[in-house]
Amino acid sequence: MGEKAIEKVSIIISKGSLEGVYPGLIMANGARMEGIQAMVFFTFFGLDALHKKKMNKLKVATVGNPAMGIPTIVGAIPGMSAFATMMMKKEMEKLDIPPVGEFLEMIHDAGGEIYGCKAAMDMFHYKREDLCDQVDGILTVGEFYEKSAGASIIFT
Known about the structure:
single chain; 156 residues; alpha/beta; Hypothetical Protein Ychn, Chain: A; 5-stranded parallel beta sheet; globular
């Protein structure tokens, strides 16, 4: 028997660092390019990717990030996160990977759905007007699961 093709994905983004947000955006964009329905749900610090004033200022986490290949103490040096962020953005620019705000616009324009988490909105005291225009709504966890019926759920 052949494998059943994926028709729908629900991607949860919970981290607010560059390396926490971009994998989900890339996966959502790739899904849409393949004709797969895509919904992206931003919760906890991932919600910063939707915040108008924060979305294009996300940084690379250098402290406690084993993928950085540097000791935690080195990651804590002032300016290290800014340096790592600058380097990553430079590499992403070479690959024509857009800034977060533009990426969200591309996903939304391609038919992807973008949602914020109600609990995280309440916890951080964010209002709907704090978020970018591409947000389709604010969902409770129950509403997220309801909309995700039949989808492959991906947690980044």
